[in-house]
Amino acid sequence: MVALTAELAERLERACPAGALRRQRDVLLLDLGACTACGRCIQAAGEAARRSGVFELAATQRDQLHKRIPIQGDAG
Amino acid sequence: MSQNEETLARELRRRAVSLFGRSLHVRTVDTGSCAACESEIRLLAAPHYDLHRLGFFFTPTPRHADLLLVTGPAVRASDVALRKTYEATADPKVVVATGACALGGVFSEDALTHGAVDKVVPVDVYIPGCPPSPLALLQGLLVAVGRLEAKVAAMAFQVQEAGA
């Protein structure tokens, strides 16, 4: 798995039609609740994204489904 | 059935038995879903998952329900139905928003839809997925039973005297 660079983060954000991947300064926010598993992130940046296969994701708070992935290097 | 599925199912059965005496009733509410979530929910009742053996049953009336399984992006046309269903369900109850639409992932708020179920009724558990697999639904039900346990524990029960 490669490090998430600013360029990859932008590519992933552009590719996501559901808005589940959003860049917030030096992190990439992955909203699991919004993800429709369309696979476009894997098409756009397969080196940085993969299917986890994890299904035990139910949460009691909506923001528990937000995952923050730090952007490595120059966050630009 | 895999080890993982069996472990999940066993835990769900244990908690449903201890809390509701093998009788936890689920009412599904569709607020504009594409029916993919409903398709996965129906699979829970199929022989492979067999939700009934765990003490969960689908009910056609909210008055018999303990748990509301809500799908869809809460279209405004379903406002009255959703609110009435919520109010008709007896306490303690839990609302489970099911699927990316219900969680606000697919439709934004506009003139036709609220975009997420928690803008209309309070939601206790969120199950992500488009659609969530039956295993994800089972795990969501397990989390929901935990919420019900907490709600039951917080309720004040009164013993009615005979003849009162």
Topology:
The complex is a heterodimer of chains A (76) and B (164).
Chain A: H1 6-15, E1 21-24, E2 27-31, H2 40-44, E3 66-70
Antiparallel strand pairs in A: 1-2, 2-3
Chain B: H1 3-20, E1 24-30, H2 36-44, E2 56-58, E3 67-71, H3 79-88, E4 94-98, E5 125-127, H4 134-154
Parallel strand pairs in B: 1-2, 1-3, 3-4, 4-5
Helix pairs in contact in B: 1-4
Note poorly predicted spans of chain B: none
Structural class of chain A: alpha+beta
Largest binding interface between chains: A-B, 21 and 24 residues
**Can you tell me the CATH architecture of chain B?**
3-Layer(aba) Sandwich
The CATH topology of chain A comes to: Alpha-Beta Plaits
State the end-to-end distance of chain A: 21 Å
Biggest pleated-sheet summary of chain A: 3 strands, antiparallel
Name the average pLDDT of chain B.
Answer: 88
Largest sheet of chain B: 5 strands, parallel
Number of helical elements of chain A: 2
Helical coverage of chain B, percent range: 25-40%
CATH fold assignment of chain B? Rossmann fold
Task: Give the CATH class of chain A.
Answer: Alpha Beta
Strand line-up of the largest beta sheet of chain B: 2-1-3-4-5
What integer value in Å does the Rg of chain B equal?
16 Å
- Tell me the structural class of chain B: alpha/beta
CATH classification, class level of chain B: Alpha Beta
Poorly predicted runs of chain A are none
Name the average pLDDT of chain A. Answer: 86
Shape of chain A: globular
What is the element string of chain A, with H for helices and E for strands?
HEEHE
